[in-house]
Every structure is written in structure tokens, then in C-alpha cells.
Write a structure and sequence with these properties.
Elements: E1 9-14, E2 20-28, E3 31-37, H1 47-61, H2 63-73, H3 80-92, H4 98-117, H5 126-138, H6 143-161, H7 191-204, H8 206-218, H9 222-225, E4 233-243, E5 246-256, E6 259-263, E7 269-273, E8 284-286, H10 289-299, H11 319-333, H12 346-357, H13 362-369, H14 374-381, H15 391-401, E9 409-412, E10 415-418
Antiparallel strand pairs: 1-2, 2-3, 4-5, 5-8, 6-7, 9-10
Helix pairs in contact: 1-2, 3-4, 3-6, 7-8, 8-10, 8-12, 13-14
Length: 423
């Protein structure tokens, strides 16, 4: 088809009763053929628009496919607009927030309504959806944004094609080829950078340092940590543990995610109780000694519903203000060059690196940071966790890979002999 496909034209006529009709003229099987359109025979209630769309289909897909689609358009049923309204009403009755509903409606109005809204839902097929996706790829839109818009359309048709509803017969989004999302390497602060941040903030921005310390030692998100209150903290006293040949007394403090700070439909930050990024996000973890000491200190004098982490004025931390003010000053003081995207969330990745260095297994890492699925943990942090060989494994690898003596030190009593493999 394309440039070598059939050429079609539109002829406009005015009938004796004053009504205007449009006919699409084209050749089919060697004969001149026409398809008439009136005000009533049009998905949008406009005959000229319907005629123009049919003309385009004839020229791109051929007369037979164009007529097949025209017949489908004339099938009675819900329009895509009507399907969306039913779907969004149903979504609003689930655990989806009002802000998310507002975002869905915005994306629908901006990206889905124009190409599909006026058409009957039953008439949309896989080719329509793929053409829509490809048009966004051509415009070089972000693959994640394209995927999010496709998710809305697919969600609508999945809802409508369920056997319990049967609003449409199928979901035309199931076989769509979506652009590949380029997974970015996880970014975090090195332990040396965290030490510099901690040292400068501890001396100059104590309230901010307390929050950052909690983030670094828990891997929590900023929105999970800022609403923390004493009612989410279970202080079980101290416990005795054995470490490196010593007996230590450490705090036994557990904290739970009871909800998160979210932006509502009016773009105001509110506390969403019982809500997290996933079900696994509603987690309880125990704190390492330094983080436990911070929490114990900040709990003093606070009621059950008072915030643990507040600024110097005792007010709630705001993410953007924190990022642009306190965090920017801390990075400058720690002599760390701020790059695009660098923020407190980097400490979540730093925490994963700490866990890996402490020989914590992937399944424990998954539960501690609140991933629903272990595949997500490996997908995000696969390059960071479980990749270091033990010292013994390194020595064996060196012995296997090289015919020379192992470049290590053999310790026998008080004697150290370099360049030999001890037996």
C-alpha cells in the first residue's frame, strides 16, 4: 500500500432536502466504487470527518480492510469514552488514590481521547493500538511514559472484556510491541561519601542528619520515613549479642511502615495511612544500633502521633524544600558534586550496598527494603548484590587462573612469607 496503494477522493453533494452527503470514491477490483457518508453515518456525528477517515483507510490499508473496519465501527456498543468512564469509576472504588485517578484522567484526555474516544470500543483492534504506540515512539517520547499510557488503555479493555462484564469481546492491547525501557544502573552514595555527608550534617544540620541516618540504616523511602510517629515504634529494650569474639549489648528497636506521605488530587501532601508502594512495603524492620539511638533520642517528649523527624522549627519535612535547601547545603559541605537526580533516595541504594557487604542474602534484602517480588530486587539491584567472592574463593580463583605462585602472604605462627601458597 502506501505510495503504491489505491487513491481515493471525497465528493460532496447537497440533497434536495438540504442535507449534505459525502462519498469516498475509489477503485476496487478494477471498478469505480463509492462509499456514502451522511451526518448519521459517522462515529463522531460528522460525515466529513468519517469520510476523511475512511479515505485514509482505503489509501493505507486497501478497500477490503477499510470496509471491514467501517462495518465494525457501525456495530452498536460503548464508545471508548464511555468505556473509560466506567473503568475510572470502578478504579475509584479500589485502593487507587484520588491523585492517581486524576493523573489517569489527564493522560486519557491528552493521549487516548483524540485517537480513540469517539470510536466504538468493539471496533478498536491490535493494529489501531500498535499504530498509536508507534506514533509516540516516532515522536521520541520516553518509553516509560508510553508504557504508562498503554497501561491505561489496556486496563480499560481488560476491565471491559472480563467475562463478568462483557462490555467488549476482547482486549486489543495484549500483543502490542512496546518500546524497551532502558534500565538505569542504581545510583547511591559510596560508604566514603556517606561518611562525609554524615560528618558534615552531624556538625551543622543535626535534624537533617537524624533523618538521613535513619534513611541510610533502613533503606526506607523519604515518604515512608517522614510520617514516622512513636506509635509505629516498638522498643523492646536491649539484647546481648556476640560479635567478633565480644559480647555486646545493643538496642532492640523495631519500626513499622504505617503509611506514607503522598500528594493528593489538590497537590497537597497528606498522610495516607495503610498505604505503601506495594503490599510488601507495609513492613516492620529492626534497627541497627546507630539508627536505634537516633529514634530513641527523638522519641523523648513526643506523643503517639507526633512526628519523629522534623526540621529545626519542629515542622514536617517537605521533600522539595529538603532537597533544595538542607540537602544541597549538606552535599556542598561534604564536598560532593550534586548531579541530576541526586537526592535522599540515593541512601536507599547505599543501604542495599551496606546489606550486601554485611553478607545479608537477597531474600532478606528483598523483605527489608519492601519489594513485592525477588525479581524486582534483582532487576533493580542485581549488579550490586551477591557478586563479591569470599577471600578464600579469590585465593582459589587466583591459583586456578595463573600458573605463578599465589600473590598473597602465608602466615605461619609469627612468620609471614610472601609469594607462596601455604599448605
Amino acid at each position: 500500500m502506501g505510495d503504491d496503494g489505491p487513491v481515493a477522493s471525497i465528493r460532496e453533494r447537497t440533497l434536495s432536502n438540504g442535507e449534505t452527503t459525502w462519498s469516498v470514491l475509489f477503485r476496487h477490483n478494477g471498478k469505480q466504487t463509492s462509499e456514502p457518508f451522511t451526518r448519521l453515518k459517522a462515529p463522531r456525528g460528522s460525515g466529513i470527518i468519517a469520510a476523511e477517515e475512511f479515505k485514509s483507510l482505503v489509501e493505507t490499508l486497501g478497500p477490503e480492510e477499510a470496509r471491514r473496519r467501517l462495518n465494525r465501527e457501525e456495530v452498536s456498543g460503548l464508545t471508548v469514552d464511555e468505556l473509560f468512564e466506567k473503568w475510572i469509576e470502578w478504579k475509584a472504588g479500589t485502593e487507587v488514590t484520588a491523585r492517581t485517578i486524576k493523573d489517569y484522567r489527564r493522560d486519557y484526555d491528552n493521549w487516548i481521547k483524540k485517537p480513540f474516544g469517539h470510536r466504538h470500543a468493539e471496533a478498536i483492534d491490535e493494529l489501531d493500538v500498535q499504530k498509536w504506540i508507534d506514533s509516540m515512539v516516532t515522536r521520541k517520547l520516553d518509553p516509560k511514559s508510553i508504557g504508562d499510557r498503554h497501561m491505561i488503555l489496556s486496563g480499560m479493555f481488560k476491565y471491559g472484556s472480563a467475562r463478568s462484564r462483557r462490555l467488549v469481546s476482547s482486549n486489543p492491547c495484549l500483543e502490542t510491541a512496546l518500546p524497551t525501557k532502558k534500565r538505569k544502573a542504581p545510583k547511591g552514595f559510596s560508604l566514603a561519601q556517606w561518611d562525609a555527608i554524615h560528618a558534615w550534617a552531624g556538625a551543622n544540620e543535626k535534624d537533617a542528619d537524624d533523618l538521613l541516618t535513619f534513611l541510610a540504616w533502613t533503606g526506607w523511602r523519604f515518604s515512608e520515613a517522614t510520617p514516622l510517629t512513636p506509635r509505629a515504634i516498638d522498643d523492646r529494650g536491649d539484647i546481648e549479642v556476640e560479635f567478633d569474639g565480644r559480647r555486646l549489648l545493643i538496642p532492640d528497636v523495631h519500626v513499622a511502615v504505617l503509611g506514607v506521605h503522598r500528594v493528593d488530587e489538590n497537590y497537597q501532601v497528606v498522610f495516607a495511612e495503610g498505604v505503601a508502594k506495594s503490599r510488601a512495603g507495609m513492613r516492620t524492620i529492626n534497627l541497627p544500633p546507630e539508627a536505634a539511638a537516633v529514634v530513641r533520642r527523638r522519641m523523648v517528649g513526643r506523643g503517639d502521633h507526633d512526628l519523629i523527624f522534623t526540621n529545626s522549627r519542629g515542622k514536617r519535612w517537605h521533600a522539595q524544600n529538603f532537597l533544595q535547601r538542607e540537602f544541597a547545603r549538606i552535599l556542598e559541605g561534604a564536598q560532593i558534586e550534586k548531579v541530576r537526580g541526586m537526592g535522599p533516595h540515593y541512601l536507599r541504594h547505599t543501604h542495599v550496598a551496606m546489606l550486601d557487604r554485611a553478607k545479608v542474602g537477597p531474600s532478606s534484602i528483598q523483605r527489608r527494603i519492601g519489594h513485592e517480588n525477588i525479581n524486582t530486587t534483582f532487576g533493580v539491584y542485581g549488579g550490586m548484590i551477591g557478586n563479591a567472592l569470599s577471600p578464600e574463593e579469590l585465593v582459589r580463583l587466583d591459583a586456578v587462573a595463573s600458573p605463578r605462585p599465589v600473590a598473597g602472604a602465608v602466615v605461619s605462627g609469627d612468620v609471614v612469607v610472601r609469594g607462596e601458597l601455604g599448605g
